[in-house]
């Protein structure tokens, strides 16, 4: 950990330039920098979409459901409701929650009418 901290504290530029600076500092070979981006696998012959995360074999009926699972389960992505603080899976879940379930939002709207 101390080695990592000593590398990070050497950087004096703006935050948006850190990644490029780090690649140069660590002397990452150019061939690695041009690796194609990851594209999740297509539907299986049975029509299901399988999670590609190593060791995870969950299957979903839609690509969106598989992608939501990956973002939440493996990347830790989530959306927090600004009205009540509930944590939801994605932006669509947040919008649905705010329309139908969020008591804090519904209470505030009631006060406005």
UniProtKB/TrEMBL annotation:
UniProt keyword Metal-binding present: yes
Keyword annotations: Metal-binding, Zinc, Zinc-finger
Keyword Magnesium assigned: no
Descriptive protein name: C2H2-type domain-containing protein
Residue ranges crossing the lipid bilayer per the database entry: none
Originating species: Gymnopus androsaceus JB14
Gene3D superfamilies: Classic Zinc Finger
Ranges for domain C2H2-type: 79-106
Highest taxon in the source lineage: Eukaryota
Molecular function terms, GO-annotated: zinc ion binding
Record InterPro entries: Znf_C2H2_type (IPR013087)
